[in-house]
Amino acid sequence: MCPPEYYGIEYEINPWMDRKQGADRGLAITQWNDLRRLLEEAGATIDCMEPVAGLPDLVFTANAAMIYRDLAIAARFRHPQRQAEEPHAQAWLAERGFAIKSLGEDVYFEGAGDALFCGETLFAGYRIRSAIGGHQRVGDLLDCRVISLELVDPRYYHLDTCFCPIAPGIAIYYPQAFDGYGQRALQESVEELIPVAEQEASNFACNAVVVGRTVITNSGCPALHEALSKHGFTPQGTPLGEFVKAGGSAKCLTLRLDGEEAAGWKKK
Ligand code: ARG
Asked: Which atom of ligand 1 is nearest to the CA of 110?
């Protein structure tokens, strides 16, 4: 994670961001600390990246890279406003022993925000931020099956805003963020798909962090929490409204360094 010391709405690169509305940094710090505490209580160990003045979105560490074992596939951001984050994240990951791999300057790739394992399969979002060309390179690099999903609604511009694997074979999703092909691909390749309704999806319900059986989301997602409880998970909500103003929530504020709970390779 990366503390929100320099967090704010300083530019607009997605439909959620509004410089006029801004964000309350004091409240953001409280919300971030509460999320961190919940993650620790769920059993996670948190390692923090130094915040950097002038990089307000560095808090969204999910975009820094995609982690696979000791490999970090580095992000190449679409928007110049976030490209300055790249060297910081890469240096931090390299210091921790990750081998840094780049897909190439010409291929936009926004890390774990757009690439999530469910079991052995990597689900990868494209068009709004990441480019589809990178998916094949990731598949070749990791020797895994990749299912590319086109994101069709600008409000759900990263895959992790509309899809969240929670264990091998089980995931939550917001169907309308995908085209018909994407919806079918998900239905055919994930045994148990939990749909989220529009209202909770727009409250970032799908942007969940999974630690063991605990699933942490923004507050105000009662229907999803009920569904998760029925599936034997322990849902927890915590207010993250200040980050929703930048188009992010729980999941975006974290980067799993040991692999997502739902990643098949994590168990090996
Ligand atoms: N303001 C950031 C952006 O538009 C938010 C990133 C949220 N991250 C995520 N993984 N969904 O890039």
From this structure: 10
For the chain, what is the mean pLDDT?
A: 97
Annotated active-site residue in 2, 118, 158, 162: 158
Q: Assign domain 25-262 to its CATH superfamily.
A: L-arginine/glycine Amidinotransferase; Chain A (3.75.10.10)
pLDDT (tens digit per residue) in 94-142: 999 999 999 998 899 999 999 999 999 999 999 999 999 999 999 999 9
pLDDT of residue 268: 78
Produce one character per residue of 237-253: b if its CB has 16 or more CB atoms within 10 Å, e if not. bbebbbbbbbbbbbbbb
% pLDDT > 70, the chain: 100
Q: How far apart are CA 262 and CA 42, in angstroms?
A: 16
Best CA proximity match to 126, nearest among 117, 140, 115: 115
62 lines ligand 1 (CB under 6 A): yes
